[in-house]
Design brief:
405 residues, alpha+beta, Rossmann fold, Dna Ligase, domain 1, D-amino Acid Aminotransferase, Chain A, domain 1, 3 domains, eight-stranded antiparallel sheet, four-stranded parallel sheet, disordered C terminus, ligase, metal ion binding, ATP-dep_AA_Ligase
Amino acid sequence: MGDQGKTFLCISNFFKGNAFLIELKKQGNRVFLITSEKLKDKPWAFEYIDEIFYMPGQDLDWDLEILMKGVGGLMKQHKIESIVALDDYDVEKATYLRECLRIPGMGQTTGRFFRDKLAMRIKAHDSYIKVPAFAPLFNDDDINQFADHIPAPWVLKPRSEASAHGIIKVHDKESLWENIHQLGDNRLYYLVEQFKPGDVYHADGLMIDGKNLFCSVSKYLSTPMEISQGGGIFRSANLKYGSKDEKAIKKANAAVMKAFGMKSGASHTEFIKCREDGEIYFLETSSRVGGAHLAEMVEAATDINLWAEWAKIEDSLAKKHNYQLPKVAKNYAGILLTLSKYEHPDLSSFNDPEVYFRVPLKYHAGLIVKSTKKDRVMQLLDDYAVRIANEFSTVADAPELKKFH
C-alpha cells in the first residue's frame, strides 16, 4: 500500500462494529476504540485494534470533559484524522469531539438530525418531507392546539432513545396530559406525534460526498414497537426489487439524506406507509448501520457488508482515494429474532438450505434466511415464526429490549 495509514478514533457504547474495525485495520490504518468499562469482556476484534480506552458509565452518562481530556492526551502523540461513531448514543460524543478538535466530519448541528427525533421532524417538515403531525412539549398552548386538532391516538416519544424504548401510546387528551405531568421536567425531552397505523419500512444505505451509493429497502413484518412492548417475534425482509414501494422508499430516503446534510457513511432510516392514505411518511433516521443483525440480512440479500463498506468509505475519505462499491447482488433475505427462554437455544432443527445465519446472542433465538425467490423467504419466515414461538419464545420486560434494532 503506497499511501500512509491514517489514525481513526472509533467510539462505541455498545458491543458492535467488529467488522468495521477489522476492515479499517486491513486498510493499513491505526485503529483506536473508546468504549464503556462495562464492555471490557466482550469479544472485541482485539488483534485489529491498536488500543482500547474504557470510559466509566454507559450511554449518555459519559463525562464529556473527561472524554475530551483523554482524547487530547492521545493527540499529543497521534494525529487523529477521523472520528467515527459506531452507535446511536455515540453520535453526540463524536460530533462534540470533532467540533472541539476541528476534525472533519459531521458536526453537532447536523448530528442532531440523526439523533434528536424533534430536530428530525422539524427539519423534514421544513423540507416538505411528509411526517406524521407532531408537537414539542415545551408550550402548553401548543400541546392543547395539537390535541384539539389532530385526531387520536397519539404517541409520546423520547427525543433521543434508540429504538422503540420509552414510547407511550395515548388515546385521549386527558391521558395525554396525565402522562405529560408524570414526565415533570423531563417533558422537554419528549414530543407528541399522531399515531399512523401502517407498515414500517427501513432503508439501509451508504453514501459518499453526498452521493447515494447503495440503498436496500426492507419491511418490518412485526414492528419494533410491538416487540419492545410485549415480546413477540421481530421479523424483516427486503422488498421486491423495482416494486412501487421500493422505488417510493428509495426516493424518500434520498430526500431525507439531502435535507439532513448527510455526506458520507452508513444510514438506517425508517418510514411508514400509512394504511389510511397510502402515503409514505418519514419516521426517523440514524447515521449508523441498523442493529438487530439487519446488517447480516442486508448482506444475505445484496452481498454488501454495510460495516466493511462503511469502513472502506471512511478510509478512502481520509486518504483521498476513490471508493468503489462492490457488485450488488439481487437476492432475497429475511430475519426473525425473538427472546428465548434458553441461554443457547438449539436451532439445529431449522436446517433448510436457505438458512444463511444463526444469531449468536445469548437468550435469543434468531435466523436469517436467503433465497433467489422472495416467496420462499416469506414462506420460511412464516413457518419458522410459528415454530420459534412454540419452542423458544419468552417475554421480557421492555427495558431488557432497549437495543432491539
